[in-house]
Amino acid sequence: MHLHGVTGPLVAALDIGGTKIAGALVDTDGRLVTRSLRPTPPGGDGETVMRAVAEVVGELRAAPQWDAAVAVGIGSAGPVDAVHGTVSPVNVPGWRDFPLAPRVAGAAGGLPVVLAGDGVAMTAAEHWQGAARGYDNALCMVVSTGVGGGLVLGGTLLPGPTGNAGHIGHISVDLDGDACPCGSRGCVERLASGPNIARRAVESGWTPPAGAAPTAAAVAESARAGDPLALASFDRAAQALAAGIAATATLVEIHVAVIGGGVAGAGPVLFDPLREHLARYATLSFAAGVDVVPAKLGTDAGLVGAAAAAAQGLASGAGARRSRGALQRCGTSCRGCRISRTWCAGVLVVAGSGRTASGAGARRSRGALQRCGTSCRGCRISRTWRPRCW
Ligand SMILES: [Zn+2]
Description:
- The chain has 390 residues and is an alpha/beta fold.
- It has 3 domains: 3-118 and 301-307, Nucleotidyltransferase, domain 5 (2-Layer Sandwich); 131-294, Nucleotidyltransferase, domain 5 (2-Layer Sandwich); 327-387, no CATH class.
- It contains 11 helices and 17 strands.
- The protein has a 5-stranded mixed β-sheet with strand order 3-2-1-4-7, with helices on both faces. A 5-stranded mixed β-sheet has the order 10-9-8-11-12, sandwiched between helices.
- Helix 1 (46-62) packs parallel to helix 2, helix 5 packs across helix 7 and helix 6 packs across helix 7 (228-252).
- The two termini are 29 Å apart.
- Mean pLDDT is 82; it is low at 314-390.
- Residues 170, 180, 182, 184, 187, 189 line the site of zinc ion.
C-alpha cells in the first residue's frame, strides 16, 4: 500500500493522551501515510499503558512504508521532561517520570526519538500547516479539558529546555483566585478550561438544556440561545484567555494567537468576548493588534505536530542531553557525504539545511534525506543524514 506515491523519508509520529494513543507515519508534506490507534488503558499501571504504545508502534512497523522511517516524534500530554525523555501526564496516573522516549526507541528498533509536550506539538503543526502558517511569532493554545500551548518565536518552534515552554494554562491571571491543581492560584486553566466553564455556570445557577449533560458544549449552546448565566461563564473564560495572551504578547511580541481544542468549537461565543477583552488588556503599541484565530488542524494536529517537531529536530529527546534541545552547527563536514555544513539537532544530523520538513531547505531536499552511514566528527553522533539532491 503506497499512498500518495511515498518515496521520501517518513517520521513515525505518536500522539499520547489520557484518552487515546494515536500513531502514524507522516511524510515530508505532513500527510498521514498509515495510522494506528488504541484507547489509553484507563487507570492502567505504567507497563499496561506502555504495552498499548508498543502495539501502536508495532502496527506502524508492520506497514510496508516503515523502511522509510528515519525518526520517531512523540507528542505527549504533560508535563514532559524532554531532557531526560520522561513523562508524567496528569491524566495518565500510571506514568510518573516514566521513561517514555527510551522505551519507544526500543520498540521502534533504535530510531532516534524526539519527545515534545502536546502543546508544543500542536504549535508545530499549526505553524507548519495551519492557522499560524506564515507567522514568525505565534502563540498556539489548546483549550479543552486543560489549557496548554506553545510558542513560535523568530520563525522557530521554541519548546524550552524541558519541552514545556508556552504552557499558558498555568500562568496566574487572578492573583488571589481559586487554588489550581498545579499548586498555584488563579491559573488561566482554572478559569478557561471546559470543565471550569461548566462548573462556574452550574455554580451561578445555570442548568443544561433538556437531556444534555452539564458540559462546556452545553454551556455554549445555552449562550448561543442568549442565556445570561452561560454567556457570563464564557465571558469570564474569554477574559482569562485574553489576559494570558496579552501577557504573552507583552513579553515576547507575538502577532497571532491560535486557539484549538474542544472549547474553541464554541465559536463566536468565545472568540467575540476574547477579542474585546484582549483589546483592553494588550494596550502597548507592540502588543496590540494580535490576530486571534481558531486552529485549522483538527484531531490530527498532535500527529502532524509530533512529526514536525521531530523533523525540525527542535524539540528535545534522548539526544537532547548533548545539544540541550537547540539546533546547532557542529562546524565540521561529514566524512561520509562530504557536505561542509553539518547541523546537529542532538538526535538527527541533517546536512545542508537543518530542516527536513519545512522552510527553504525542505523545498530543496523535498523528501529526499538519505542516511550517509557515518558519524559526524564534530558532534560524534552516529547517524548522519543528507538530502539527496543537495
Ligand atoms: Zn495551575
